[in-house]
Amino acid sequence: MRPIQKSLKLADVCYDIRGPVMEKAKQMEDEGHKIIKLNIGNLAVFNFDPPDEIVQDMIRNMQNAAGYTDSKGMFAPRKAIMHYTQEKHIRGVTIEDIYIGNGASELIVMGMNALLNSGDEVLVPAPDYPLWTAAVSLSGGKPVHYVCDESADWMPDIDDIKSKITPNTKAIVVINPNNPTGALYPVEVLQQIVEVARQHQLIVFADEIYDKTLYDGEEHTSIASLADDVLFLTLNGLSKNYRSCGYRAGWMVVSGEKRHAKDYIEGLNMLASMRLCANAPGQFAIQTALGGYQSINDLVGPGGRLLKQRDLAHKLLTAIPGVTCVKPKAALYMFPKLDPVMYPIKDDQEFIHELLTEQRVLLVQGTGFNWINPDHFRVVFLPNTDDLTDAFGRIASFLESYRKRHGTN
To answer: Which cofactor does it need (predicted)?
Structure first.
């Protein structure tokens, strides 16, 4: 029979967070092995529970959740999101500028689908959260990666951004706080990106899903609050700040200079209508979450579990010979570097596969985040301190044996 092949649109799509190495890990689990998973920011499996008031509100409203909602979302949660944009100093947002989605992920794809024609280019950070690169490719566009500078705490390289703009460039993606590096961008850097967008009439897609997961008293600035003459699409949701990944409750806010974007916004409305609506139970959680007690502050503040685990993970990682890591100011991840002399890695996916096989620890290789060199990996520091200590002990043992095998000890 004629083979049935996947679409050519998937040729440049990579999502190794749930890729081949994870499939190997699942096979090993089926065989009875216990795997320590440091590969995905799925908070619930590490006993980070959503606020009880969110859960109770969803339960109480479940009888009202059977029907379709407005294609953009229910009024009450959109009103709560509008108030949140005011707290973030994003001006001029109305109810009609807000789209609720099945997680921010659905809205990322929708935003790109509505925008891109074949050959259109979008500037995406390297490293990035790979869904952004995939969404551009699936929408017929071309992702062009600009460098974030590890030696400058992973800040975007503004000169590199400018050098990669062409007549085909339509937009720039800004992931702040950043996944996978944990970087948090100061106002000065954001203003420079806004100025580039202004000069070249680019749309700014702002991924701010970790805007409350901040350490050491840091504060987050929404890039959309810095200008009214640039078009911004800001994405956020309940998954991380409210430990509600499975509720799939995200939102997208259109702000700034909207007058010249009426046709694009019409496209967004068409796509929102085509999927009918976001899931209703998740929508019922939004108003309560945004207006309730912000328990994330207890987790990231002094004595908080996430802060303790970040500090422990960074300490254990950087104690390993040849491993360096910029300490994250936000989010749930670290993106450490392996000294290429001590660790002459040619294929980092195979490297991570070997680690899994030998030590039962699951990570994601740096190239899975569109980083150009096979010398980084991403760590999730969500397991409790005992499991983190065990995991990093195993990683240290694997790296020691790797150095011995390659004569670089």
So the answer is: pyridoxal 5'-phosphate
